[in-house]
Automatic annotation (TrEMBL):
<dbReference type="InterPro" id="IPR001650">
    <property type="entry name" value="Helicase_C-like"/>
</dbReference>
<feature type="region of interest" description="Disordered">
    <location>
        <begin position="28"/>
        <end position="68"/>
    </location>
</feature>
<keyword id="KW-0547">Nucleotide-binding</keyword>
<dbReference type="Pfam" id="PF21010">
    <property type="entry name" value="HA2_C"/>
</dbReference>
<dbReference type="InterPro" id="IPR027417">
    <property type="entry name" value="P-loop_NTPase"/>
</dbReference>
<dbReference type="InterPro" id="IPR002464">
    <property type="entry name" value="DNA/RNA_helicase_DEAH_CS"/>
</dbReference>
<feature type="compositionally biased region" description="Basic and acidic residues">
    <location>
        <begin position="40"/>
        <end position="58"/>
    </location>
</feature>
<dbReference type="InterPro" id="IPR048333">
    <property type="entry name" value="HA2_WH"/>
</dbReference>
<dbReference type="Pfam" id="PF00271">
    <property type="entry name" value="Helicase_C"/>
</dbReference>
<feature type="domain" description="Helicase C-terminal">
    <location>
        <begin position="332"/>
        <end position="514"/>
    </location>
</feature>
<keyword id="KW-0067">ATP-binding</keyword>
<dbReference type="Pfam" id="PF00270">
    <property type="entry name" value="DEAD"/>
</dbReference>
<feature type="region of interest" description="Disordered">
    <location>
        <begin position="285"/>
        <end position="304"/>
    </location>
</feature>
<feature type="domain" description="Helicase ATP-binding">
    <location>
        <begin position="90"/>
        <end position="290"/>
    </location>
</feature>
<dbReference type="InterPro" id="IPR011545">
    <property type="entry name" value="DEAD/DEAH_box_helicase_dom"/>
</dbReference>
<protein>
    <recommendedName>
        <fullName>RNA helicase</fullName>
        <ecNumber>3.6.4.13</ecNumber>
    </recommendedName>
</protein>
<keyword id="KW-0378">Hydrolase</keyword>
Length: 775
């Protein structure tokens, strides 16, 4: 990609990518335009019209089916509302390829459906003949069921639960098996980032949507699988929308790639927008890659069944705040201790623990501190309180702690979670839910290339899901820290992520999967054309797409990394002998992708004085990226007490550990891809990076972030190179208040003001160099 490419010069800056002609106006020059907002969701998530589509067959009387697996779970499984409908589920799927299954939270969808299906005839592995180039070859198709989850913690906890119910080991040894029956290999497995447990013989595999998308790149017909269960579709992450598009292509395609074996798709949720899903799977789009041209007439549904299962296992009593709550943290504290002091610790159903939903990591950590401090003042005759935080950036081990029974019998567990625990999961012991009514939502403004992360009111769908976490092991209670009137004003569902996110990643995934015309890819809610064009252009600048819109070798290499395309591009540039700084770049990327900032915010002058000397050792005048590098290098060189090392510098211990995990994974991937030799083990002596090497590292980052740069204007403000907006350096950056010739920033966020975050000082001419290298 090093060669310079000429832009078309018919009077304006334009570039052709495939069949798109995109203007470069505004990237290098100003082009004022009004901003638009993304459209509202079209339909209520809890749409009552769903009833009119109910399965035509009346429910059959509950057959007396004996569960298989571990007998200690028989009674609980038989009590689930889904249990008596298992024959209906099997019957529909014998006849049809798609089933939309709507059942209340806790009715047994995620745990039972795959168990109902894996013994079905259509679910057995078959050997078929498929075309490979000019010749026919024999391949195995089917045998496994994939169950996708929006989050890692849901995939792993469900796999643990189902492996217990089936009485088969997750670690793949042969000691398990139905009691008294023949020994079996593993039946259940899971696959999430950093962790895969797929024992030999696995028939039911829980995995994140992202992992299945990765598998699709390697196996476009999903030949391993007989069925894909898309669980919690209502969350409408970009990944699940892409997955739905790919699945639609497979089920409506000619099945030759699967040797004629159909792939069954089961879509599940408690709060799905039934109409949107039915409409999506009913009309057959043409994906633009097939030989046929788009059909003007929607074709009939490719064999879709719908089943709505009423009833929940246990009731959940909902209480609203009588009036608006001025201070949510205070109200949370009051509610936790009201429950704790007034309600029993357990009953005949088991423990009665608390799960509270807060908007983000910061709020959780603040609440944890408040609750722990207050708990110390309690009467010693009362049970103790043990708080567990639960948010996405925690390591999997730390997340799993919240799912363990609390140690010490006379103790109540209080789990403080983000919406990571909102769907799919059962947190054992939880019978009380406290819902603060907010969640941090990412919103990307394509035109500005800017992302905001603001706490916003949740949707009704989320509120229902949150309450659903309380009634899973016995009758539960949900305390909503907002009024009934506020609840009524909540939107039925959240805006699908694809309409409010940077599309660069999604489009690269489509291209890697061979989709040429991304505008024709089937999506439930297609994004605006302008957002797609911006993403195409950015991918071209990154060198991931050629000018004719095809994915390049670099693009193909980029999708192998669990990173955003700009960061993946930086990583690949770092392996180029011209820059040769892969280990350093991995260290920096690990720190910036490990969660919220690894540097804790210093709130008081005292705190600042306390850490000043320590932190000065880490700071580099080149800015935040080089500071992260020094921090990681010194941290890994430390071989006595890393916890103390972090505490002295007010560095987030958990995030630093997570950064180490990411570093290990990225190093492993780079070795596997032949980008570097196995690096020497830690600890390595610390050697400061020379200014020349720092320049190479920053230039490498510019390969991914040339469009995220700003130049100092005569009035001392920073003006972005793309769009010409004024941006300020965020107070958390070490370059805050400094005047540099030009800056590069990895994030552009809107909170109270437009802020550049993760900032580095660069030279203005490096920007043009990097852009020319890309174009
Ligand atoms: N990890 C677990 N520990 C204890 N009980 C569990 C666990 N997972 C599931 N269960 C039990 O199985 C029941 C059914 O769970 P399942 O996840 O299958 O329901 P669901 O219909 O998929 O719910 P949701 O829509 O809320 O995800 C739960 O209500 C709970 O009683």
């Amino acid at each position: 990609m090093a060669k310079k490419r000429k832009r078309e010069t018919n009077g304006e800056n334009i570039i052709r990518i495939g069949d798109k002609v995109i203007s470069l106006e505004g990237y290098l020059t100003k082009k004022p335009r009004a901003e638009t907002t993304a459209p509202e969701p079209k339909k209520d998530a809890t749409d009552s019209t769903a009833d009119s589509h109910k399965e035509a067959h009346p429910p059959k009387p509950a057959p007396t089916i004996r569960p298989t697996g571990d007998p200690q779970y028989f009674a609980a499984r038989q009590a689930l509302p889904l249990w008596s409908r298992q024959e209906d589920i099997r019957r529909i799927l014998r006849e049809k390829d798609i089933l939309l299954l709507v059942g209340e939270t806790g009715s047994g969808k995620s745990t039972q459906v795959p168990q109902f299906l894996y013994k079905e005839k259509w679910c057995q592995r078959r050997t078929v003949r498929v075309k490979n180039g000019d010749r026919m070859e024999e391949v195995g198709v089917g045998g496994m069921i994939a169950v996708t989850q929006p989050r890692r913690v849901a995939a792993t906890t469900l796999a643990h639960r189902v492996s217990k119910e089936t009485g088969t080991p997750l670690n793949g040894d042969r000691r398990g098996g139905d009691k008294g029956g023949p020994s079996v290999k593993g039946l259940v497995g899971y696959s999430v980032r950093f962790d895969h447990r797929v024992p030999p013989g696995t028939r039911i595999k829980y995995l994140t949507e992202g992992m299945l998308l990765q598998e699709l790149l390697r196996d476009p017909y999903l030949r391993k699988y007989s069925a894909i269960v898309v669980d919690e579709i209502h969350e409408r992450s970009v990944d699940v929308d892409l997955l739905a598009g790919f699945l639609k292509q497979i089920i409506t395609g000619d099945k030759a790639g699967r040797g004629g074996v159909p792939l069954k798709v089961i879509i599940m949720s408690a709060t799905a927008n039934v109409e949107t899903i039915q409409r999506f799977f009913s009309d057959v789009h043409t994906d633009g890659d097939s030989a046929t041209s788009p059909s003007p007439e929607p074709k009939p549904s490719p064999s879709m069944g719908y089943l709505q299962i009423e009833g929940r296992q246990f009731p959940v009593e909902i209480t609203y705040a009588p009036q608006p709550v001025p201070d949510v943290q205070q109200e949370l504290l009051k509610t936790v201790f009201k429950i704790h002091t007034k309600e029993p610790l357990s009953d005949k159903h088991g423990r009665r623990d608390i799960l509270a939903f807060l908007s983000g990591q910061e709020e959780i950590e603040a609440a944890q501190k408040l609750i722990e401090e207050y708990a110390l003042t309690l009467d010693p005759s009362l049970p103790k309180v043990k708080v567990f935080p639960l948010f996405g950036q925690l390591s999997m081990e730390a997340q799993h702690e919240a799912f363990q029974p609390v140690k010490g019998g006379f103790t109540r567990k209080v789990v403080l979670a983000t919406n990571i625990a909102e769907t799919s999961v059962t947190v054992p012991g939880v019978r009380y839910v406290i819902d603060c009514g907010k969640a941090k939502v990412k919103q990307f403004r394509a035109r500005l290339g800017m992302e905001s992360l603001l706490a916003k009111p949740i949707s009704k769908s989320s509120a229902i899901q949150r309450a659903g976490r309380a009634g899973r092991e016995g009758p539960g209670k949900c305390f909503r820290l907002y009024t009934k009137e506020t609840y009524e004003t909540l939107k039925p569902a959240d805006l699908p992520e694809i309409l409010r996110t940077d599309l660069v990643n999604s489009i690269l995934t489509m291209k890697a999967r061979g989709i040429q015309d991304v505008m024709k890819f089937p999506l439930m809610d297609p994004p605006e054309q302008e957002a797609v064009e911006k993403a195409l252009l950015q991918l071209n600048v990154l060198g991931a797409l050629s000018r004719d819109g095809k994915i390049t070798d670099i693009g193909r290499q980029m999708v192998q990394f669990p990173l955003t395309p700009p960061l993946a591009r930086v990583l690949i540039a770092a392996a180029d002998p011209k820059y040769d700084c892969l280990l350093e770049v991995i260290d920096i990327i690990s720190c910036i992708t490990a969660g919220e900032d690894i540097f804790l915010q210093l709130r008081t002058e005292e705190e600042r004085e306390e850490v000043a000397d320590y932190r000065n050792e880490l700071f580099r005048r080149e800015g935040d990226l080089m500071t992260y590098l020094t921090t990681m290098q010194l941290y890994t060189a430390e071989n006595s007490d890393r916890v103390k090392w972090c505490k002295d510098r007010k560095i987030h211990i958990r995030n630093m550990k997570q950064a180490l995990n990411i570093r290990k994974q990225l190093r492993g991937l780079c070795v596997k891809q032949g980008m570097m030799e196995q690096p020497p083990p830690d600890p390595q002596p610390y050697t400061p990076v020379s200014p020349q090497r720092a320049e190479a590292i920053l230039k490498c980052f510019l390969r991914g972030f040339a469009l995220k740069t700003a130049v100092l204007a005569p009035d001392n403000s920073y003006v972005t190179s793309y769009g010409k907006h004024v941006v300020a350096i965020h107070p958390a950056s070490i370059l805050h208040g400094r005047k540099k010739e030009a800056i590069m920033y990895l994030e552009y966020v809107f909170t109270q003001k437009n802020y550049a975050k993760k900032v580095s000082a660069i030279q203005a001419n490096w920007i043009t160099e990097a852009l020319e290298e890309g174009l």
